[in-house]
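OP here, attaching both records as promised.
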Amino acid sequence: MKWTQMPLGAIQTNAYILENDNKEALIIDPGAEAEKVMTFIKDHALKPLAILLTHAHFDHIGALEAIRNTLHLPVYLHAHEQEWLSDPEKNGSTLFPMVEACRCQPAEHVLTEEQNLQIGNFNCRVLETPGHSPGSVAYYFDDDAVVFSGDALFYGSIGRTDLYGGDQDVLIQSINDKLFSLPSHTVVAPGHGMETTIGYEKQTNPFLV
């Protein structure tokens, strides 16, 4: 499997496009610029299978409806944030005047617990990582040694917890219990900024050392 990081929108939220040898693809967190994502899919002759959401803040779902409706893809999201898709107050889009109120249709697949997901030939483990938001999850691909962490863990930092439903103590516990239990060589592909590794963050992250 290979993945492409695609910073999108005013906040430069990282969307990811994953592809395997069969040209199947998954889209993680399409936050804005739907045409850019769909052009990439078309130019690389990919066959998208689903959209995975790490959480439902506006900057991670801004292009969701356009991509879902055009490519006819199912969406995966944790149950704790199912109603956030249609609620601009909870998804945060009302907090930023430059952002249009974000309202999306419900997710087709609601995650209620940690589980293994198999979508086409993709296999990953869903890890519940609340704190930045109540329904935050990470998608861990063991065979590829990468975890898509959303806004839980960043290079040298952690997610903000001053938005609706945020809790810093819960977030730090999630990182320590879930993400830091992964092998040290695991690549962390975050919702913003550059990639890092679990081992590097264990040793250097000032919020966690």
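Record two, same layout:
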Amino acid sequence: MWFNSPTEQLSIQVLSQVTTSDDNPFNYLLEPWATTVPFDYPSSLLRQLQPYLQPYSFIPDSKALELAQEILSATQGNTVDYIFALNQLIYQDCEYITRETGKPYPAGITWERKQGSCRDFTVLFMEVCRAVGIAARFVSGYQEGDRNQQSRDLHAWVEIYLPGAGWRGYDPTLGLVVSDRHIPLAASAIPSYTAPIEGLVTPVKSGEIVTSNMNSHISIN
């Protein structure tokens, strides 16, 4: 969106009606070669998944690698057990904090501090999956939560590619396997590409502080 003259306010309203139906997140069978990690991908599939296998910071995170090895040893490389153990470990061992702005923290920082926002936990989950060759991507959207709450913030979780099952969601913030209680808006190998709105603004008056606000209302039937 472009403006020919300065404007002091921009308001974007989006109205959507969504029907969800995937109430069983376990309705799949893995490919026989994907029951243990790391996977020995067919070359054609590996090329397609390559963006989702690269480290978030393009440099392998040592703490994420260490955590991956610990879980790998504890689960004996069983794919489903590995993913479930990782999801529960982040949920149980890390404290959730509200962080309305800023990029996700690197995985090692989140795990060392044992606290973070939903986007921090998602990046941590992604890195630990990618460390053992499981393709993972960042998802932003909304989660049902308490049906009676008046407002909801944008939420983040991870989707991993399980051969035979396709992309499957896990929510380490809530310790859940994603089903029909999550509404995805965008998914990407790179977290910054999942923002619902992006762009640059310049103050109309020099020295003026630019502020932004995002309000969401979800009605669940």
